[in-house]
Amino acid sequence: MDNISVITMLTLSGLNGTANYRVPLFTVTLLCYCVILLVNVTVIATIIGDKNLHEPMYIFLCNLCINGLYGTAGFYPKFLSDLLSPAQIISHAGCLLQGFVLHSSASADFSLLALMAYDRYVAICRPLVYHSVMTKRRICVFVCFAWIVPFSLMLTSTITSTSRLCGSIIPKIYCVNWFINSLACSVSVTANVIPGFNYTFYFGHAVFVMWTYVYMIKICLKSKENMTKFMQTCLPHVFCVTGFAVSFLFDVIYMRLSSRALSQSVQNFMAMEYLLIPPIINPLIYGYKLTKIRKRIQHLCQMLLGQNYWVSGHRTGCHFFTPPNQVVQIKCFVLSVVQY
Question: Which InterPro entries does the entry link to (predicted)?
Answer without folding.
Answer: GPCR1_Superfamily_Member, GPCR_Rhodpsn, GPCR_Rhodpsn_7TM, Olfact_rcpt
